[in-house]
Design brief:
This protein is an alpha/beta fold and 274 residues long. It is built from 9 helices and 11 strands.
């Protein structure tokens, strides 16, 4: 539930990196031990990537892949199992500790870099065949043009950017997804106090966060401004993850907002080439 408190939020927005890093660090153990992430089945060989991303990736054998905002690395390590040479980046030190733990336990060769996204060029060298990020990533970033610059910097000539994200239309709604409360073109930060987490909605964890909504025009425009070429774009009326307060699962791994049916776009995916 979103609760806009009466305390001074200007400082929180100014310190968004610290606020959000603290939030993610506090969630790592809850997520790692949740049914949502199901680490046990992952250790037994389950691929954490969804069909949406897998269809875009194709064969990644021998490809170098940079995974931006990788959390504790399940998707990163799934790509390693598929034969890729993977590097994961995240702002959360606690998440990366779990990622390295998984990597070592599974005998994989992933590497993980702690950095906020905008500072990554100062903390990582080289370029990659594929840059990848997905699901709940760009909302933590205030400047989508700087994001596109970082993405492009790490793409090899002829390289690909693979991206899947929750649809920005969702950020117009209240948390129950019943009523539109924000304009689609909103540029101001969204300041939230929340109880629980998407991976365990009943947990009593309380956190604060600072996020931004980026419309499709802004995202695609920022990438095109880097002279990337759009080679694939698709919208989906379902989410592969049950992140909603109330959801229906009409087909395996296809969740929709209860009462909305197929009325809303919930996810989009794209591929860009350099």
């Amino acid at each position: 539930m979103i609760i806009l408190s009466s305390r001074n939020r200007i400082m929180e927005e100014h310190n968004y990196k610290e606020v959000n890093k603290d939030m993610w660090n506090s969630k790592v153990d809850i997520h790692f031990n949740s049914e949502f992430y199901d680490v046990d089945s992952f250790k037994e060989g389950r691929n954490s990537l969804t069909d949406i991303e897998l269809d875009l990736f194709g064969d990644v054998t021998g490809k170098s892949i940079l995974h931006l905002q990788c959390h504790f690395g399940q998707d990163t390590l799934s790509l390693a199992r598929m034969g890729a040479q993977v590097t994961g980046m995240d702002i959360s030190s606690e998440a990366l500790a779990k990622a390295r733990e998984l990597n070592d336990e599974l005998g994989l060769s992933g590497r993980f870099i702690e950095s906020d996204l905008y500072s990554l060029p100062e903390n990582l060298e080289g370029q990659f065949d594929i840059v990848y990020t997905s699901y709940g990533t760009i909302g933590w970033l205030p400047d989508i043009n700087r994001w596109a610059e970082v993405v492009t910097k790490f793409m090899k000539p002829g390289g690909r950017f693979v991206f899947a994200e929750f649809h920005p239309v969702l950020w117009m709604f209240d948390k129950p997804i019943k009523e539109i409360v924000y304009p689609y073109m909103r540029s101001q930060a969204i300041l939230e106090d929340e109880e629980g987490t998407y991976a365990n909605k009943e947990h009593d964890l309380q956190t604060s966060s600072v996020t931004w909504n980026h419309g499709l025009g802004d995202v695609i425009g920022a990438l095109l401004s880097q002279e990337l070429k759009l080679t694939h774009f698709e919208e989906f009326d379902y989410s592969p993850y049950n992140i909603f307060p109330k959801a229906t699962e009409e087909k395996p791994k296809q969740f929709r907002v209860e009462g909305m049916g197929k009325k809303l776009p919930l996810v989009y995916a794209l591929e860009m080439t350099k």
